[in-house]
């Protein structure tokens, strides 16, 4: 099945597509089959080893290697590296996973390495924080009459947690990326006003819908607080303030641990600064009591335990 969408990415990589076009008339029939496959399936080809490409096209490994040299590359590794460059950001997690899977490790070692990665991400996130950014982020949330939280994929879950934490202390908090999809999110953003705050969350691989909808928020002149991973994030140019969370992960595209920790920290600072936060927390707890499991008091537990140990005769 042809992958039509990624071809645009490949066409932007002039070095390899021009080389294929230039040499195509002189290619053998076998090499033309390889060229046709690469042009029709650029993303898939970029992820393939030479053995996988040879099998997909129906040629020998030696022929696949000669095809690469015919295009002017030293061999297949250089040819594939040029293909990967067109999809660098999207393929980065795949390449990391490929190298990690080549390394032998026990499950316990993976557990430990994963937790150490997250600890490093959290420490890196902490180092990037500035006092001024922390204060301004809290000010923006408490000053906004309405807070809209935008994020797709795993960022949508982070946004839901954030909305849950902020809801008791802000007049209106609403997530605008949910199962209804980007069209419904756009409808909600269309109602934005200048004093509203949009908190946008996105990490590699960045969602195209998030970037496009953030552009709509800017058109409505709403204030934007971005939570993302680095200064190269597409959210940065459109944000009034950016909080950075380190998100590196070897066995997946990103880690959300530091982002969640940053969100929890921000919400904690909002609670600390909000007016009547103690009264709000007390009232909320009182209303939630009918829905909470409340075990027997510790004294009653102890008495019951003693009674079982020393039953009356």
Could you describe the 3D structure shown?
The chain is of the alpha/beta class and 313 residues long. The protein has 2 domains: 7-86, Arc Repressor Mutant, subunit A (Orthogonal Bundle); 113-275, Glucose-6-phosphate isomerase like protein, domain 1 (Rossmann fold, 3-Layer(aba) Sandwich), CATH 3.40.50.10490. It contains 16 helices and 5 strands. The chain has helices spanning 7-11, 14-23, 29-40, 42-46, 50-57, 61-70, 76-86, 88-101, 107-128, 131-143, 154-166, 182-189, 208-219, 257-273, 277-288, 298-309, and strands at 147-150, 173-175, 197-201, 223-228, 241-244. The protein has a 5-stranded parallel beta sheet with strand order 2-1-3-4-5, sandwiched between helices. Helix 11 links the parallel strand 1 and strand 2. 29% of the residues are buried.
Brief overview:
The chain has 2 domains: 7-86, Orthogonal Bundle (Arc Repressor Mutant, subunit A), CATH 1.10.10.10; 113-275, Glucose-6-phosphate isomerase like protein, domain 1 (Rossmann fold, 3-Layer(aba) Sandwich).
């Amino acid at each position: 099945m042809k992958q039509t969408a990624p071809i645009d990415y490949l066409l932007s990589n002039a070095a390899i597509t021009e080389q294929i076009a230039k040499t195509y008339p002189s290619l053998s029939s076998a090499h033309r089959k390889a060229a046709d496959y690469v042009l029709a399936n650029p993303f898939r080809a970029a992820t393939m080893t030479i053995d996988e490409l040879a099998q997909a096209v129906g040629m020998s490994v030696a022929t696949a290697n000669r095809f690469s040299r015919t295009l002017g590359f030293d061999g297949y590794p250089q040819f594939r590296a040029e293909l990967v460059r067109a999809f660098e950001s999207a393929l980065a997690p795949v390449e990391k996973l490929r190298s990690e899977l080549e390394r032998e490790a026990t499950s316990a070692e993976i557990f430990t390495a994963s937790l150490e990665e997250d600890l490093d991400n959290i420490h890196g996130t902490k180092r990037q924080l500035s006092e001024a950014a922390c204060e301004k982020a809290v000010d923006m949330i408490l000053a906004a009459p309405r807070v809209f939280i935008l994020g797709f994929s795993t960022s949508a879950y982070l946004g839901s947690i954030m909305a849950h934490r902020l809801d008791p202390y802000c007049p209106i908090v609403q997530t605008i990326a949910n199962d209804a999809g980007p069209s419904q999110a756009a409808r909600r953003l269309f109602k934005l006003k200048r004093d509203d705050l949009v908190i946008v969350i996105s990490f590699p691989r960045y969602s195209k819908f998030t970037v496009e909808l953030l552009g709509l928020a800017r058109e409505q002149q709403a204030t934007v607080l971005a939570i993302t991973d680095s200064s190269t994030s597409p959210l940065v140019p459109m944000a009034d303030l950016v909080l950075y969370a380190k998100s590196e992960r070897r066995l997946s595209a990103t880690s959300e641990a530091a982002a969640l920790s940053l969100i929890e920290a921000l919400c904690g600072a909002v609670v600390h600064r909000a007016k009547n936060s103690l009264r709000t927390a007390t009232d909320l707890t009182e209303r939630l009591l009918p829905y909470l499991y409340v075990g027997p008091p510790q004294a009653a537990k102890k008495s019951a335990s003693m009674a079982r140990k020393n039953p009356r005769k």
